[in-house]
Predict the structure.
Amino acid sequence: MKGLLKKDLALLANIGKIYVGVSLFCMVLGLVNEDMRDFSLSFLVIMFSLAAPSTLSYDEFDNGMSWLMTLSADRSVYAKEKYLLSILLGLAGAVVAVILGALVFRINPFQGGSDSQIAILVAFFFTSGLMLAVMIPAKLKFGPEKSRIIAMGMVIAVWIVFFAGKHMLESFGVSFSGAMESLEKVPNGAVVLTLFIFYGICMSASYFCSVRILEKKEF
């Protein structure tokens, strides 16, 4: 697995300038508009996390998967490495976001309340995990082109569920804004712990799906 990690990190290092440029853009965006600071920092977490599935396209180029499957790493180890890479990159994005927030935006990452930066970054880390849980098996099963369509459909489905849920709450006489205010009263520690548990469940289920896909796939 160590060799696979080195390979993917070397591939991502070749396009490292893109991530540096996006990080600078997020920094400038937060300096120009204070209301965009949380979004710009959280976007870094998602951007870093979603870099991992892009390595699948490199692996499949020029029948690369056929060669990789001849190495000592079996298919389950290959899938495990992709998920480990996704988690490591997401954590790296969170660390970069915390450092930029503290040094550039003067944000205390340990500040409590609804504006807690740690809670916000964990929420976006969880969001990126949900996206990866769908994207990685989709790429392995259908390839890069169809997986993009699936990813777009997933985003649309999330928005539909969100607005449908909001409408359903209001139809039962429950104020959506009141429900959100109630959620803000939940301790940040409980929110972070709950999100990490769901993150682990989603990524574990996705990993087993990816292993089954790889075991049935011929290269």
